[in-house]
Amino acid sequence: MRKCIRCGAEMKEGFAFTGGGGNVLRAKGISLKAVYPKAALCPECGEVSIYVEGDALEKLKK
Asked: Does residue 41 lie in a domain region?
């Protein structure tokens, strides 16, 4: 369960991004291919949180 950083409400998780664009995340020398970020939405204030799970998260820890 994710808590909203703005208002503290419980966020709705598991939303996916669809459509075009790449599926590669790059930042500060890290490149993650075939990464599919997800989003959580706050029903109270509209805050959006983008996150990754699974293998992509393990690669970032290395």
From this structure: yes
Asked whether 46 and 12 are in contact (CB, 8 A), the reply is: no
For 24-56, what is each residue's pLDDT tens digit?
A: 666 666 666 666 788 999 999 999 998 877 776
Q: Rounded CA gap, 18 and 24, in Å?
A: 14
- Return d(Cα 40, Cα 13) in angstroms, integer: 4
pTM for this entry: 0.68
User: Could you tell me if residue 6 is inside a domain?
Assistant: no
Would 42 be classed as within a structural domain?
Answer: yes
**Residue 24, beta-bridge partner list:** 33
Q: How many domains does the chain have?
A: 1
Give strand pairing partners of 39.
15, 50
Q: Is residue 3 part of a domain?
A: no
Residue 33 has what pLDDT?
66
